[in-house]
Write a structure and sequence with these properties.
Order of helices and strands: EEEEHEEEEEE
Oligomer: single chain
Strand order of the largest sheet: 3-4-6-7-8-5
Number of strands: 10
Radius of gyration: 17 Å
Structural class: mainly beta
Shape: flat
Largest sheet: 6 strands, antiparallel
Length: 155
């Protein structure tokens, strides 16, 4: 699992290689966007994007939106209801749009759509639980290619 951070314009984006390279950005306090490009590993036997990949993509993108809308508190999926409406194929760019519908102290309710070529291919509604655990620090110090590295991240 690898997360890479990069600046795109003035937005912070996260590239998640576990799901095939997902880029994520905040649009507003209650709206978020993510995108990915379909590759051969994402296809089913019919040559179109596997529904399981689209479900995982929504779970990751909407889960990140829930996390960010909750002041970066850890969130876990309680329910996710998906509707498969269209199809995508290799090389297609999939854009996900998440809207936070309601947030309580412990839950985030949201709606998400995946689009390909400006057409909705999947829609979803879901609920995420905001966990009440403390953030944690990740530290790494080491050498790579004769260079010393030190990284400290707070989640």
């Amino acid at each position: 699992y690898e997360i890479r951070l990069s600046l795109v314009g003035s937005e912070m984006c996260i590239r998640d290689r576990h799901n095939g390279g997902v880029m994520f950005r905040n649009i507003s306090e209650n709206e978020y966007e993510f995108k990915s490009v379909i590759n051969e590993n994402h296809l089913n036997a019919a040559g179109i994007t596997h529904g399981g990949y689209l479900a995982a993509l929504i779970d990751a993108g909407a889960g990140t939106a829930a996390h960010r809308s909750s002041q970066n508190a850890p969130c876990v999926t309680i329910s996710l209801d998906l509707k498969y409406i269209g199809a995508s194929k290799i090389g297609d760019e999939i854009i996900g749009h998440v809207k936070i519908l309601k947030k309580t102290k412990t839950l985030v309710f949201l709606f998400c759509e995946l689009k390909c070529n400006d057409k909705i291919i999947t829609s979803a509604s879901g609920v995420w639980k905001i966990l009440k655990i403390k953030s944690w620090d990740f530290e790494f110090a080491g050498n790579l290619d004769n260079k010393s590295y030190y990284v400290k991240l707070n989640f």
